[in-house]
């Protein structure tokens, strides 16, 4: 269990952006020099860069990048600095790591509403929507002012599609290997002059019965090797979203969103010893009301206010104790809160921003197989306050971004006889966290800028670490937050002018070096037979390089590529050199050349992931792997398009985490009609 705790911690790091191909500016060659520079600057500033101008951030255009059966995990895994760990194939439990962080050190949001829960803070990427999204924003190492705290590795924000100005209906049907099927319907329109509507529903399911090589756990005994089929790996999921907008005039507006996600799946366990009975059900309901205002007080203030609520239900059944003890859980979480944020356009060179949020979260555990069945209610009240200033100097060539974040947390345990939990303090626990940071961007030319950031970020202990459970984990209310100091420096070069290379339609090159230290990492240690307790004992250092590029040329050729090298060191292991952090591969490469024209495209993808140790001693190592994928799309009519993709073209035997097999060669296709 010790290595399991270590594999969930290591915190850190920042930066690096990808994607962001900019079209050629029409008429740029005939424009005066000063007008041309302003136009280029406006083109390359994404919404993520506007929010955090010095931070290395990736902004993924979901409609442009998604393949027929892609998931949020697939798109994130194609970005520099981001690692995705999967416990199996499509629909399986998946987690994210940003530059060596643990999964619970990366908060995930939907339109700024937190999806990470205090119970364990880890978000299953398979539970995230994709087809209803316009883009995905991933910030490395720095948490921008518009989000709450708790992010050591960075933060991911999923942004839903806007309501369109013209009525439009999108219908998609897709399917492929292992009885995979997908149906999507989206309708967006304006109602009158002031109302907008977005209605979306999507279904994704699969039997997941792929074949894989099984050595029966005897690596050196080939006589019992066989090819077998994955069992209990089917799933069905449905995601619905309804979003309405209303413009009151005068820069005032309101948005209401309701999202519901449901998934029912089997849990087959490792490949060498598959389980036929465990199952998992997840249900999420997310609601928010947002009021927005722009150009207030003589066009000096933009802001918004939001009320939100998130309900989550997780039911796990393991009647035969395949995972250790019989379980029949029915755990619920309710999160509700409100936030406000805004920007004061004080002067042409000074724009302060603010963010304030207060929320309450309660976790209600229930286990039919335990006595008593109702576990302890666990509550967290959180107040987050942050301020940021954007100072521009020397004709906008230098941008300074100081920020300060304060979080106050109160955690309580109730609804249980505390005499049964003697190691957990009965009184409420209060914490005050401070996270200062500073960033800078220097524009050397119209196409080249330097960036750098330094900041301290903290993750408070979660409920599992503080209060334990009714089984093998004992709580420790004396835990202190994990703390990381993240640093990065690099450059962004972007060309979108036709001269001096008229054949180049657009190009972007980005490099970042990062150096991060994390202390007071939380890990579980054996305190008595069959009992584990969390302690602040670990520390780590992660350094690395990230480079990404994207360009288009001669109107028909494009390349997207990124490479990440990180050197992670577990400083709590007794080793002269310091062992590599578990589940953090040193090298990752993604390459996607493509050719395209007005009626279709053809692409090839190469993904390489280096050796990946799964334990602190680096004794168990998942071998490096290379995955080849090809795909094509055609658009024979303006309203009709089709896509096909062949993944793992070489039919490689892939194990993402130890003995959790991933599918071999897979074929998926889909058709989309737009009316």
Rg, rounded, reads 25 Å
Strand content bin: over 45%
The tally of structural domains comes to: 1
N- to C-terminal distance: 54 Å
CATH superfamily: TonB-dependent receptor, beta-barrel domain
Helix content: under 10%
Mean of the pLDDT scores? 87
Low-confidence stretches: 1-43
List the total number of helices. Answer: 7
The coarse silhouette is globular
CATH topology: Maltoporin, Chain A
CATH architecture verdict: Beta Barrel
Top-tier CATH class = Mainly Beta
Q: Helices and strands: which structural class?
A: mainly beta
Main sheet summary: 22 strands, antiparallel, barrel
Q: Please report the total strand number as a whole number.
A: 36
Q: How does this model look, in words?
A:
This protein is mostly beta strands and 675 residues long. The chain has a single domain, classed as Maltoporin, Chain A. 6% of the residues lie in helices and 56% in strands. The chain is built from 7 helices and 36 strands. The strands form 6 sheets. It has a 22-stranded antiparallel beta barrel. It has a 5-stranded mixed beta sheet with strand order 1-6-7-4-5. Strands 2-3 form a two-stranded antiparallel ribbon. β30 and β31 form a beta hairpin.
List keywords for this structure.
675 residues; mainly beta; Maltoporin, Chain A; 5-stranded mixed sheet; 7 helices; globular; disordered N terminus
């Amino acid at each position: 269990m010790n290595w399991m705790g270590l594999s969930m911690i290591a915190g850190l790091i920042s930066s690096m952006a990808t994607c962001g191909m900019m079209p050629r500016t029409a008429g740029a060659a005939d424009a005066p020099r000063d007008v041309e520079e302003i136009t280029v600057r406006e083109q390359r500033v994404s919404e993520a860069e506007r929010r955090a101008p010095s931070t290395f951030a990736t902004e993924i255009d979901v409609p442009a990048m998604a393949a027929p059966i892609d998931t949020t995990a697939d798109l994130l895994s194609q970005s520099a600095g981001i690692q995705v760990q999967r416990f199996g194939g499509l629909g399986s439990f998946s987690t994210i790591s940003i530059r060596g962080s643990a999964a619970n050190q990366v908060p995930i949001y939907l339109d700024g509403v937190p999806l990470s829960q205090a119970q364990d803070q880890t978000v299953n990427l398979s539970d995230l929507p994709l087809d209803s999204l316009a883009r995905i924003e991933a910030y490395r190492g720095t948490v921008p002012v518009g989000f709450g705290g708790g992010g050591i590795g960075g933060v991911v924000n999923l942004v839903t599609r806007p309501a369109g100005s013209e009525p439009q209906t999108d219908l998609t049907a897709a399917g492929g290997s292992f009885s995979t099927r997908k149906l999507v319907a989206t309708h967006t329109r304006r109602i009158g002059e002031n109302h907008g509507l977005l209605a979306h529903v999507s279904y994704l399911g699969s039997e997941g019965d792929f074949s894989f090589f099984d050595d029966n756990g005897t690596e050196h005994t080939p006589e019992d090797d066989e090819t077998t089929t994955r069992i209990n790996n089917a799933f069905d999921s449905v995601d619905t979203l309804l979003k309405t907008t209303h413009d009151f005039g005068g820069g005032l507006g309101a948005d209401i969103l309701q999202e519901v996600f449901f998934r029912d799946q089997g849990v087959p366990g490792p490949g060498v010893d598959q389980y036929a009975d465990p199952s998992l059900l997840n249900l999420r309901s997310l609601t928010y009301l947002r009021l927005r205002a722009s150009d207030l007080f003589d066009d000096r203030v933009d802001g918004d206010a939001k009320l939100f609520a998130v309900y989550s239900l997780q039911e796990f059944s393991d009647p035969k104790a395949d995972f250790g003890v019989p379980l029949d859980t029915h755990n619920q979480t309710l999160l509700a809160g409100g936030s406000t944020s805004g920007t004061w356009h004080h002067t042409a060179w000074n724009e302060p921003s603010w963010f304030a949020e207060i929320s309450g979260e309660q976790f209600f555990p229930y286990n039919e197989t335990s006595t008593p069945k109702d576990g302890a209610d666990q509550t967290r009240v959180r107040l987050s306050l942050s301020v940021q200033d954007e100072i521009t100097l020397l004709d906008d060539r230098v941008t300074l971004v100081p920020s300060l974040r304060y979080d106050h947390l109160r955690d309580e345990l109730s609804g249980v006889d505390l005499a049964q939990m003697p190691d957990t303090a009965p009184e409420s626990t209060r914490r005050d966290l401070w996270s200062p940071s500073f960033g800078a961007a220097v524009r050397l030319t119209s196409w080249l800028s330097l960036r750098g950031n330094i900041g301290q970020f903290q993750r408070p202990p979660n409920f599992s670490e503080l209060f334990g459970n009714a089984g093998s984990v004992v709580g420790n209310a004396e835990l202190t937050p994990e703390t990381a100091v993240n640093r990065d420096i690099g450059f962004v070069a972007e060309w979108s002018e036709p001269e001096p290379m008229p054949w180049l339609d657009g190009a972007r090159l980005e490099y970042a070096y990062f150096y991060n230290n994390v202390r007071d990492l939380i890990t579980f240690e054996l305190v008595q037979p069959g009992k584990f307790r969390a302690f602040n004992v670990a520390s780590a250092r992660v350094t690395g390089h990230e480079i990404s590029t994207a360009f288009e040329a001669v109107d028909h050729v494009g390349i997207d590529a990124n490479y990440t090298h990180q050197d992670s060191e577990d400083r709590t292991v007794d080793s002269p050199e310091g062992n590599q952090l578990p589940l953090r591969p040193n090298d990752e490469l993604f390459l996607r050349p493509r050719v395209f024209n007005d009626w279709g495209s053809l692409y090839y993808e190469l993904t390489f992931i280096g050796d990946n140790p799964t334990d602190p001693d680096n004794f168990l190592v998942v071998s490096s792997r290379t995955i080849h994928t090809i795909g094509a799309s055609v658009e024979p009519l303006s309203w009709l398009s089709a896509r096909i993709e062949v993944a793992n073209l070489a039919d490689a035997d892939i194990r993402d985490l130890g003995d959790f097999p991933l599918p071999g060669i897979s074929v998926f296709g889909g058709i989309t009609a737009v009316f």
